[in-house]
């Protein structure tokens, strides 16, 4: 998964700029982000503080790591079952 080049603190400050009245076009031009990315951030993180954003990012990273671990274990289990069936 590609890492964002913006920290949770930066995302929170960008969203606060929008809430204070700055237009999306100006924000996207100033920070070099697409409007779609901005609206995705707004949908996902609106109303959160930087510490909450940081915790959400940590949980998403942990979740993706655990999914990869589960996939590897499931593959190992499937391979073991295949070997056992072949021997019987």
Description:
Helix content is 78%, strand content 0%. The protein has 88 residues and is an all-alpha fold.
Structural class: mainly alpha
Total of DSSP H or I helical runs spanning 4+ residues: 4
Which H/E pattern describes the elements? HHHH
Mean pLDDT: 89
Unreliable spans: none
Largest sheet: none
The portion of residues forming beta strands comes to under 5%
Shape category = elongated
Write the SSE topology.
Blueprint: H1 8-19, H2 24-31, H3 35-45, H4 50-87
Summarize the structure.
The chain has 88 residues and is mostly helical. It has helices at 8-19, 24-31, 35-45, 50-87. The protein has 4 helices and no strands.
Attribute tags:
88 residues; elongated; mainly alpha
């Amino acid at each position: 998964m590609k890492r964002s080049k913006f920290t949770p603190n930066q995302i929170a400050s960008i969203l606060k700029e929008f809430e204070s009245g700055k237009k999306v076009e100006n924000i996207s031009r100033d920070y070099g982000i697409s409007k779609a990315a901005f609206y995705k951030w707004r949908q996902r993180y609106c109303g959160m503080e930087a510490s909450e954003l940081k915790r959400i990012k940590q949980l998403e990273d942990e979740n993706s790591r655990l999914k990869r671990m589960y996939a590897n274990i499931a593959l190992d289990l499937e391979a073991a079952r295949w070997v056992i069936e072949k021997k019987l």
